[in-house]
Prior knowledge:
The protein is of the alpha+beta class. The chain has 3 helices and 7 strands, in the order E-E-E-H-H-H-E-E-E-E. Strands 2-1-6-5 form a 4-stranded antiparallel sheet, with helices on one face. The chain is globular and about 45 Å long.
Amino acid sequence: MKKKITHRGRIQAQGGGVEKSCAWAQESPLTRAEGQQKIDTLEESLTLTEKEVRKEALQQAKDYIERAAKAGGVNAPVSKTFPNRLKEGSDVRVDIEVITGQAFVPELME
């Protein structure tokens, strides 16, 4: 029997000529740790310059995931944008989308 993918989303670096993303599509909700790993993977795919102009946005996205986990996670649909507020008029940002299911749930304590 085929397993059903019910939890999908992506974290994206957008603007300034950049379109990079790290997506998930899985059977169980994305955990807080998995969400942080997705941001780390996205960050590693950026050049030094792309990273630098998104430093604030990346941190805001990481903080959002931590807050979401403390609240028990988030349910789709979620579309959050974290802009670079230091550069007015810039379209440089990091986006988080939870398309279906849940994400950023706290890890189960063993």
